Hints:
Number of domains: 1
Shape: elongated
Distance between the termini: 43 Å
Low-confidence stretches: 1-12
Helix content: over 70%
Radius of gyration: 21 Å
Amino acid sequence: xxxTAVSTVEIxxxxxxxxxxxxxxxVWALTRRSLIHVRRDPMQLADVTIQPVLFTLLxxxxxxxxxxxxxxxxxxxxxLAGLLVMNLTTAGMxxxxxxxxxxSTGVINRLRTLPMSQTAILVGGSLSNLLSxxxxxxxxxxxxxxxxxxxxxxxxSVLAGFGIALLFSYALTWLAADIALGVSSPESAQGIAxxxxxxxxxxxxxxxxxxxxxxxLATVANWNPVSAVAAACRVLFGNPNPSAAVDAWPMQHxxxxxxxxxxxxxxxxxxxxxxxxRRRTRN
Length: 283
């Protein structure tokens, strides 16, 4: 009787740790698929490799000379955190277009015919986007160091700043997935993602202190999650942070606000993505 039970466990579907390992194998296979595509077509990463360099040079050398920070400080020290968050935010448009393209061209349907967990499809895509975000963060940091940006805190604090930015980027990946799953074409995904991501990135303190904005716009910017993440990075990098003088909770507690925003986006968007995926692939 015990032998029968053992043989049933051995030949049956994996349970417990075996099921988790099988799910992770599926996730990694799909993440690796994305990496192989990038290796074959490196220009897929133009938005996280070339764009950060161009934006860094543009804002520092074209706009930086005209910027005067409240309380003083070099503009290049101030803007690096904003450039980091802006590039990670706008990269969400590429995420939405990529997933929407896979849906419209039948790639997702082909993946559904394979013996793999369906949740692994979305999770694998999110992890590949996280790796792209890590590349983007590295390029922003290297470009900043090349033009004279310097963090003024210890290495653990600097790494924590990049970690907060990457967590926020990962949360936005799921928002982008919701957009892609909720529309019918890559063109629609790109348009809606632009409408959401572009104001999110620019109506913030990423490139200019909010003190000079009209009162209503400053209020919007101060409660924008991008502003919280940019301010948190500045605090952790030891860079000038004029937002510390703003009487708004996210600006007074930017690290806590950044983590809270990321958690709220994940809690809201991950289950929604799962529901939209099931509805989109029902037939």
